[in-house]
Amino acid sequence: MTQPFIAKRQVEFRDTDAAGIMHFSTFITYMEESEHELLRSVGLSVMNCEVDGIHLSWPRVSVNCDFTRPLRFEDEFEIHVIVAKLGGKSATYSFEFVKDDQTLATGSITAVCCTMADGKLNGTPIPHSVREKLSIYLKS
Fold it and tell me: 112 with 124: CB under 8 angstroms?
């Protein structure tokens, strides 16, 4: 089984509703932050990342999240991230929100590898060097 990338977080007051429960939109923000953290950990970036002389960007084409239990103000939790799929031009990340060994939410983000030129995005195959870096978190 692939070891996930683990991001640790604590629910901030700004991310809660009037009842002190983390707002649903914050899960997506934390997913994106965890994806960025994973990319940085392998020497990549979600935007303007230069690989083999090419400037890459990773716009999202799909995001989802399912919730089973709430997170509350000041709860400490982990976000487990794996690369669920590496397609020809896209990467799909899976996220699991975990507190006290219980899954509270799951989600995914699919991003397309693009070149940036003259302010325009064009889908491009994921470079081999990027595949190698992401493969350490690729679902087996």
Answer: no
φ/ψ of 129, rounded to 5, equals: -65, -35
By 3-state DSSP, what share of the chain in percent is helix, strand and coil, each rounded to 5?
20, 45, 30
For residue 54 the two structure tokens come to 């090419």
The first and second tokens of residue 124, run together, are 């491009």
How many residues are present in the chain? 140
Can you tell me whether residue 25 is helix, strand or coil? helix
- Give the tokens for residue 117: 């030129």
Judge: domain 5-137, CATH 1.20.1070.10: no
- Report pLDDT digits (tens) over 120-131: 889 999 999 999
Neighbours of 87 (CB within 10 A): 12
- pTM equals 0.93
The rounded distance, in Å, linking the Cα atoms of 51 and 20 is: 43
Strands (E), the chain: 5-10, 49-51, 54-57, 60-67, 76-86, 90-99, 102-112, 114-117, 120-123
> Structure tokens of 128?
């081999």
